[in-house]
């Protein structure tokens, strides 16, 4: 949207862009209506009831119950309406569909690195297909960043030491901005890029053109060997470390009696902070790989470990966000 040639609003290029804008304009209009109304009333009533002669005393007002109720109930209804509408849009934005195309982003002073499961790696450029949900798992190599796609009306912080995610479905081919929206140092303003949305066929062609190093999981498998992970994590379960076969999505018990479901966050912690949770029946022998594995290599290792759980691969993305994935089918069953 442009006004007098000045770009005011980015294009609505994702499926939920219209919902986000409608909510935004409703809240803006409601706030403007009351702000302007109250401002006008303050000025007009101030003029009308101003002191006109010496010794004038204001009327004593005891209150007005119907009026008090009216201006409590109406704003409550409006606020709850905003809350309900906002919550519904928010839940939609925060729940990636199960069939979403998965890829990884790493923020680093001052660039965005993207990795596709097929093996393609890009910097400050991202190629995705139109008409298909895309889920991006985000991490940071150094400080806080925030991955923002204005045309898709979505953004998410990149937090050091943690995985976050966002999703969107681009509607039509084109080129759109990528920004960093968290101040991250000298060249924060230069931490920008372009997302190119391609027709599905063109996207398939683009996928064929890259990935010289094999898929992300294959790169992870090579790292797994280079870092000598396989010397302890034997598939037989007889190694010094637990077998990693078919573990994703399962419940694992620890020495201290606690347990956890194995997801991306757990695997990440186990690699970087290997002493944090010791699997029952094993010794705390594993060295830490903190500082030895970059965020990009870490996601390659994750994909390799996930590929050892073929049965859970489909649900491994769901395992990363169980709270988001479970309620939807449950709600569908009730109907
Ligand atoms: Cu990265 Cu600002």
In terms of topology, how is this protein built?
Blueprint: E1 2-3, E2 6-7, H1 17-48, H2 65-94, E3 101-108, E4 111-116, E5 121-123, E6 125-129, E7 133-140, E8 145-149, E9 154-158, E10 164-169, E11 174-180, E12 193-198, H3 200-208, H4 216-226, E13 251-253, E14 259-261, H5 264-272, H6 295-307, H7 310-320, H8 322-325, H9 327-334
Parallel strand pairs: 3-7, 6-12
Antiparallel strand pairs: 1-2, 3-4, 4-5, 7-10, 8-9, 8-11, 11-12, 13-14
Helix pairs in contact: 1-2, 4-6
Notes on the protein architecture:
With 335 residues, the protein is an alpha+beta fold. 38% of the residues lie in helices and 21% in strands. It has helices at residues 17-48, 65-94, 200-208, 216-226, 264-272, 295-307, 310-320, 322-325, 327-334; strands at residues 2-3, 6-7, 101-108, 111-116, 121-123, 125-129, 133-140, 145-149, 154-158, 164-169, 174-180, 193-198, 251-253, 259-261. The strands form four sheets. Strands 5-4-3-7-10 form a five-stranded mixed sheet, covered by helices on one side. Strands 6-12-11-8-9 form a five-stranded mixed sheet. β13 and β14 form a beta hairpin. It is elongated, with a radius of gyration of 27 Å.
Mean pLDDT: 85
Query: What is the CA-based Rg, rounded?
Result: 27 Å
What is the name of the CATH class of the largest domain?
A: Mainly Alpha
Major beta sheet summary:
5 strands, mixed
Number of strands: 14
Q: Helix tally?
A: 9
Shape: elongated
Domain count, please report it: 3
Features:
335 residues, Immunoglobulin-like, Cytochrome Bc1 Complex, Chain D, domain 2, 5-stranded mixed beta sheet, 14 strands, elongated, disordered C terminus, binds dinuclear copper ion
């Amino acid at each position: 949207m442009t006004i007098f040639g000045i770009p005011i609003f980015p294009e609505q290029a994702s499926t939920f862009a219209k919902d986000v804008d409608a909510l935004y304009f409703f809240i803006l209009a409601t706030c403007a209506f009351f702000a302007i109304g109250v401002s006008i009333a303050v000025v007009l009533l101030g003029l009308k009831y101003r002191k006109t002669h010496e010794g004038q005393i204001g009327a004593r007002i005891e209150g007005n119950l119907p009026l008090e109720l009216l201006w409590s109930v109406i704003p409550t209804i409006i606020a709850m309406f905003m809350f309900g509408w906002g919550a519904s849009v928010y839940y939609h934005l925060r729940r990636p569909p199960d069939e979403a195309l998965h890829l990884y982003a790493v923020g680093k002073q001052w660039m965005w690195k993207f990795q596709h499961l097929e093996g393609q790696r890009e910097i400050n450029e991202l190629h995705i297909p139109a008409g298909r949900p895309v889920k991006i798992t985000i991490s940071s190599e150094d400080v806080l960043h925030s991955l923002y796609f204005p045309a898709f009306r979505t953004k998410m912080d990149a937090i050091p030491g943690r995985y976050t995610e966002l999703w969107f479905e681009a509607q039509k081919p084109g080129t759109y901005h990528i920004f960093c929206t968290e101040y991250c140092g000298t060249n924060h303003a230069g931490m920008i890029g372009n997302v190119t949305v391609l027709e599905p066929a063109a996207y398939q062609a683009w996928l064929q053109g890259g990935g010289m190093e094999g898929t992300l999981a294959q790169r992870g498998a090579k790292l797994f060997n280079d870092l000598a992970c396989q010397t302890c994590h034997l598939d037989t379960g007889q190694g010094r470390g637990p077998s990693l076969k078919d573990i994703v999505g399962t419940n694992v018990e620890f020495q201290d009696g606690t347990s956890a479901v194995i997801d991306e966050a757990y695997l990440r912690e186990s690699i970087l902070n290997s002493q944090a949770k010791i699997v029952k029946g094993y010794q705390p022998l594993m060295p830490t790989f903190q500082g030895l594995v970059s965020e990009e290599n870490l996601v390659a290792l994750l994909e390799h470990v996930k590929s050892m759980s073929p049965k859970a691969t489909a649900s491994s993305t769901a395992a990363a966000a169980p709270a988001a994935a479970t309620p939807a089918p449950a709600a569908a069953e009730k109907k």
